[in-house]
């Protein structure tokens, strides 16, 4: 089954890239030449770097190699998506452009006027010297070639602009969202308690120490009472990314951490120890009793392969059900276990809000909530779109955020 899926995926990938090359380079040039060869090299080279970046990240290749491949490879990955979408939209426009009335040229003079005659000194007539024949002009592009160039150029311009704006949005840092969540059992004295929810920072070969500092500065500017980092902090080892995560020591409020699936690609045990050294408190299937509510955390589902999966009974089994419980769990799909254990509010990330439209359609199918606040029985689930980005440092239709959850007591 895996082999069949791999073959189908490869066939779709090859067909899609052949289509992009054909529309952008073959159909916009007059014939075989350097333009078509350069286009083939660009498309093939971009995908080689994209696959190389993914493999280098997963296999723990030297960090300098990861950084070398990541920027061009991941940006090409995003650009190719929007090139393909733009060219597909262009298929609908192409027939209309072909039918657009052509601009008529004035008729050329077919008959040449008689040559003037000069009269010589002896009264003999001499023909006027002939003017030099003009050089032939380059043939005008055909209607089909002209339309292909217009559609291809527009698609390329739109794709570059989309990826450029989406990349600037990520590198500029996450925005702040503020959401009020009423909780029935929350004491009146806890009304207005603020939790900064941070997820999916994805420190790695693209987003490094400078980005981590932006996240910390943004969190501190909201003056929260508590910081909840709900997974996918890193994409790489402590050895490579320890310095990039160092700004987390600057958080001004008590900070708690649970693992995401990417921690288990990066050495989860080592990262748990590292965040503890940086001053964060990991909640590994554990709970702390804060003055006005219980704060619990469970490991990510990806930890099951290493015998470190989520254990709701351990984290929640012996708690006082009369107290409000807030649960940190990386993936929204963990909401069903949270409902069974009487959790009042679950805070999650993981989805990135889809990150690259129309990826939101796929992410919506795989998660009960894509982003925002929803209710499941007596349990509320809030999903942040995350602070960073995985793969391409680009977001389209799903801007990054840090969410400040303000708890509201219904007793107030």
Describe the overall structure.
The chain has about 400 residues and is an alpha/beta fold. Helices cover about 40% and strands about 15% of the residues. The chain has helices spanning about 1-25, 35-60, 65-100, 145-170, 210-220, 240-245, 270-275, 310-315, 335-340, 360-365, and strands at about 115-120, 125, 175-185, 195-200, 225-230, 255-260, 280, 285-290, 295, 325-330, 345-350, 370-375, 380-385, 400-410. The strands form 3 sheets. Strands 3-14-4-5-6-7 form a 6-stranded mixed beta sheet, covered by helices on one side. Strands 8-9-10-11-13-12 form a 6-stranded mixed beta sheet. Helix 7 links the parallel strand 6 and strand 7 (about 280).
Number of helices: 10
Shape summary:
elongated
Mean pLDDT: 90
Strand content: 15-25%
The major β-sheet equals:
6 strands, mixed
Distance between the termini: 57 Å
Helix content: 40-55%
Q: How many beta-strand segments?
A: 14
